[in-house]
Each structure stands twice: as C-alpha cells, then as structure tokens.
Amino acid sequence: xxxEGFVSKVHRKKPHLKPMPRHIQKSNAGKSVIxxxxxxxxxxxxxxxxxxxxxxxxxxxxxxxxLANIVYNMRRLLxxxxxxxxx
Length: 87
Fold this sequence. Notes:
Layout: H1 22-48, H2 58-86
C-alpha cells in the first residue's frame, strides 16, 4: 500500500497488557469519524431501499448501486431543504 501511495484506514489494536498509546487513540478516533459517516449511508440504503445486489455482471451491479446512491442523495437533499426551510 505504501508503494502505491495509499494509507491504511484500519484501526490499530491495543498492545496486550499495556495501555493504548495516545497517538494511536487519536488515529483510531479520526478513522472512526469517517467510518461512522460512511456506514450510515450504507445502512440507510440497505434498510430504506432494500438494497441487495444480486445481478449477473458488474455493469448491472454498478448501475444498481449508482441508482441507490442517487436515491439516497435526493432523499438527503429533500431532508436538508425541509430542515433549512423550518429554521
């Protein structure tokens, strides 16, 4: 990953029988913020739209995921517009 310029987004474990170092705690906390935002989108798509990809071919699966993303973005936009209008 380092050779290609990617950075790992996986949490690091606590050392066995030792306290978690402060810099690792801060790193894990930052990764958790990003993960929670992304996981909420997937959870919404799965629960509200019943997203379950079972297609033949990557192009159909890509299209289905793309449409689910568009629906999520439209629903989110409507929610934010209503929220802004009431304020």
